[in-house]
Amino acid sequence: MLKRALVALAAIAGIAVTASLGFWQWGRGQERTAMQEAIEARERSAPVPVQELVAGADAGALLHRPVVLRGEWIADRTVFLDNRQMNAVPGFYVVTPLRVEGTQAVVLVQRGWVQRDFEQRARLPAVQTPAGTVEVRGRLAPPPAKLYAFATEEKGPIRQNLDLAAFRAETGLPLLPVSVQQVGAPSEGLLRQWPAVGSGAGKNFGYAFQWWAMAALIAILYVWFQLVVPRRPARRP
């Protein structure tokens, strides 16, 4: 009897743990789905007024909203972020500060992607940076994602990563706490087929079903070996 009780307790505990993990993964999937829907709603909203952007509004509340800016490129501060892909081809993300017209504010613009020269890796690709006032259409985004890099301070136009606070201190530019991801047709030698922001909810839902399947398997095995098999009549020799 003690052995049967221990087996029953172990089965109940296994079912409870795996089922609860399934519900936890399901909840995470729903949270990510809701977050993705909120991002898509922001992308469809009206452009952020320039005055609101430069006035120091909450950067988190503005992310993913469209924006239209006029200003002048600070071309000599252009950075080429290495090992970035577009359509599975490695190259550079080109990032240039833009001084917003009528203000002293400067915003980092992720202008697009360009393929690198694989024979001369230190050679900068041909990218046009117009002088004078330009209009940039894009969406407010976090700074470019960081890739693994050695713990050395990066200088020069070609870098692995670009830390906004460090770049602000390096250049002395009054950079805003957000960046702009430029959108539109290819121009100035740059492509702008940015990867879509995915929620990742599908993985959570998949994990949830795996945990629930494990809970069901534990229940089936318990019923079969502890309830069904012992009650089956023994076969006669």
Automatic annotation (TrEMBL):
Swiss-Prot/TrEMBL keywords: Cell membrane, Membrane, Transmembrane, Transmembrane helix
Keyword Hydrolase: no
Subcellular location: Cell membrane; Membrane
Primary localization: membrane
InterPro entries assigned to the protein according to its UniProt record, in alphabetical order: Surf1/Shy1, Surf1/Surf4
Listed GO CC annotations: plasma membrane
Domain of life: Bacteria
Keyword Transmembrane helix assigned: yes
Membrane topology: Multi-pass membrane protein
Chain ranges passing through the membrane: 209-229
Membership in a protein family: Belongs to the SURF1 family.
PANTHER family per record: SURFEIT LOCUS PROTEIN (PTHR23427), SURFEIT LOCUS PROTEIN 1 (PTHR23427:SF2)
Annotated protein name in UniProt: SURF1-like protein
Organism: Ramlibacter cellulosilyticus
